[in-house]
Amino acid sequence: MARLGRWVAGICLALALLLAGPLWMLASGGVEMEGHWGAASRAPSGLAPAPEAAPEALVQVYAARAWGWRGAFGVHTWLATREAGAAEWRLHHVLSWRTPALVSTATTTPDRAWYGSPPRLLADYRGVRAAELIPAIEAAVDAYPVANAYRAWPGPNSNTFIAWLLREVEGLDAALPATAVGKDYLLDGPLAPAPGGAGFTLSLGGVLGLTLGRADGLELNLLGLGVGVDPRRPALKLPGLGRLGMAAEVMGQE
């Protein structure tokens, strides 16, 4: 009985540590909870350059806190492309309230706030590199195997989709934040390349796993929540709180 008690106490302690960050985000007002999500800000952030300022081809990957209580745990990620000389972007992401869940749409503002939460740029490819990536991205989007599926936890969800694209398209890399819950839900077996490239992800159903990579650092997936360290750009990665330390590299920028 004593051994069982120690196991139960250990499990409770581990759960408390994993939930401490999300609970702090809720208690401190770190996520948008007031009012209705439909009335929250969708203002552009200025991260997507206008065609006249940057007429070359572009590929950008974004992340922003989810709306409501989900934002205490994680972010929503999306990808946008713009052909050279084009006036509009093509935005790709997965939504919980749409059927099919995978949505690709034209827009002039791919950098809008995600219902009150300003986005952060994870990758920014331009010029010849972006022009080479765009056809491969479009082909991968069309081939996404679970376009009709959405499950907030452990996946597949919006972060599963973006992580899958990063793994499918050679030369397209982005170090997804530890708060991108669902990024470790693998669709093609328990082992896959790391989203940031030069590494690997080992995952069991998206609830237990390990990622090790040059851009991703070392990250443990415990019940879908990320805990880790980035020794290259020194920072801790904690559930709910995300990255504490040096800012992550924006992939593609030289």
Structural write-up:
The protein is of the alpha+beta class and 254 residues long. The chain is 23% helix and 28% strand. It is built from four helices and twelve strands, in the order H-E-H-E-E-E-E-H-H-E-E-E-E-E-E-E. The chain has helices spanning 2-27, 70-73, 127-143, 158-168; strands at residues 58-65, 75-82, 89-94, 102-107, 120-126, 191-193, 199-204, 208-213, 217-222, 225-230, 235-238, 242-245. The strands form two sheets. A seven-stranded antiparallel sheet has the order 6-7-8-9-10-11-12, with no helix packed on it. A five-stranded antiparallel sheet has the order 4-3-2-1-5. Strand 2 (75-82) and strand 3 form a beta hairpin. The chain is globular and about 70 Å long. It starts with a helix and ends in a 9-residue tail after the last strand. The model has no long low-confidence stretch (mean pLDDT 94).
Per-chain topology:
Elements: H1 2-27, E1 58-65, H2 70-73, E2 75-82, E3 89-94, E4 102-107, E5 120-126, H3 127-143, H4 158-168, E6 191-193, E7 199-204, E8 208-213, E9 217-222, E10 225-230, E11 235-238, E12 242-245
Antiparallel strand pairs: 1-2, 1-5, 2-3, 3-4, 6-7, 7-8, 8-9, 9-10, 10-11, 11-12
Quick take:
This protein has 254 residues and is of the alpha+beta class. It is built from 4 helices and 12 strands; from the N terminus they run αβαββββααβββββββ. The chain has helices at 2-27, 70-73, 127-143, 158-168, and strands at 58-65, 75-82, 89-94, 102-107, 120-126, 191-193, 199-204, 208-213, 217-222, 225-230, 235-238, 242-245.
